[in-house]
Amino acid sequence: MDTVRYPSYRDSGLPWVPEIPEGWQVLRNGRLFAHRVQTGFPDLPILEVSLRTGVRVRDMENLKRKQVMSQKEKYKRAAKGDIAYNMMRMWQGALGAAPVDGLVSPAYVVASPFPEANSAYFSYLFRTAAYMREVNKFSRGIVSDRNRLYWDEFKQMPSLLPPRAEQDQIVAYLRVQDAHIARFIKAKRELINLLNEQKLRIIDHAVTRGLDASVALKPSGIEWLGDVPEHWQVNRLKTLCAMKSGDGITSFSIDETGEYPVYGGNGIRGYTSGFTHDGEFILIGRQGALCGNVHHVSGRFWPSEHAVVVTVRPQHDIQWLRKLLSAMNLNQYSISAAQPGLSVERLLNLYAPVPPLDEQGYIANTIELETQDIEIAISRTNHEISLILEYRDRLIADVVTGQIDVRDWLPGPDDEVADEALAALGGDEDIEADGEDEDGEE
């Protein structure tokens, strides 16, 4: 549909949305939600939150999540339709409407909507960039990265209130757009998976067999490796590199204006004013969905607790080792397949094929050349996903603040929405930790 503005607007009195449609109100959250503090419901399912798609029922096959079942008496009840948010991470979008009656961590606040409030509309509104900046203003704590948005501050925050029928229409419209975007993202991610498989086949052959097809082979003695070139060695990883787990979250305050990047298991998580590492390193995702992920960093940085820092010994090529580690499928060595977690000691004792130093560099360079087109295709596809997600964020912000009028929109024959299909809007790395280490005091 073509974007249409409302016929008339008025001054909202809010700096983050200067004008709103006539007929919309601005009310404090305490006029829209009641505070629900209920514990002692151990039979309810545990809920988790995606930073992009909201609250969903947690997969209890995860080992770590089984371990917290003994603490379910302390968890808070969120009734179906309640808004639940993480006090420390609402500014990142750690909130959503409960799809069923369930339990959330004590580190969460549960807000029960009054009849005039559609919690799905507010779940969209609260995750807009403008609103999350307001969350920071109302949060308090000793240091910035430990700020919390308590109920007393949340209830004072002003929010927009369209008429209830318009809220419902906005939610219906955005869910349909989400479904179309999710299908696009799912197709792009499937393409990326195929490209990655193709790339890994090239890497695997090069780092385990070398580049000379005529060279004589010998048994490696390692089941996953099979035969290797006769002049290669087979050594433990600890002879090739040193490894150390990254630093805890409290080492430095994460600050988007900081000078040094904070690296997790899959790239930059934020910035900080200090650094603990300076040089060229390999990082391995240590736990969670990114367990076993391998990437290269250089310069001054701070590695988070979700990464293993690999320092390559001088007699080995860092780019060759990065490709070797990628080919080793390290997540298979996690302590638990249900809650992946890599042990540094276990990694260091793994065996790997080791060609001479000059051959290591040749292999690394050849892999770069042979996978260059694949890398370009992966990068382009990831960029397309980023662009569609940026479009989604802008569309949501415009619709929930009344800058686009969707009251006359009607769903078409292809506009069916299934909740499970919307999961593609986020990724496993998008799942928010539930704050089990927090006391949740309010």
TrEMBL record:
Q: Does the keyword field hold Nuclease?
A: yes
Q: What domain of life does the native source organism fall in?
A: Bacteria
Presence of keyword Zinc? no
InterPro entries from the xrefs? Restrct_endonuc_typeI_TRD, Restrct_endonuc_typeI_TRD_sf, Type-I_RE_S_subunit
UniProt keyword list = DNA-binding, Endonuclease, Hydrolase, Nuclease, Restriction system
Domain Type I restriction modification DNA specificity residues, every copy: 229-368
| One of the record's GO molecular function terms | endonuclease activity
Question: Which PANTHER family does this one have?
Answer: TYPE I RESTRICTION ENZYME ECOKI SPECIFICITY SUBUNIT, TYPE-1 RESTRICTION ENZYME ECOKI SPECIFICITY PROTEIN
Family assignment from sequence similarity? Belongs to the type-I restriction system S methylase family.
Protein name in the entry: Restriction endonuclease subunit S
Task: Give the originating organism.
Answer: Methylomonas fluvii
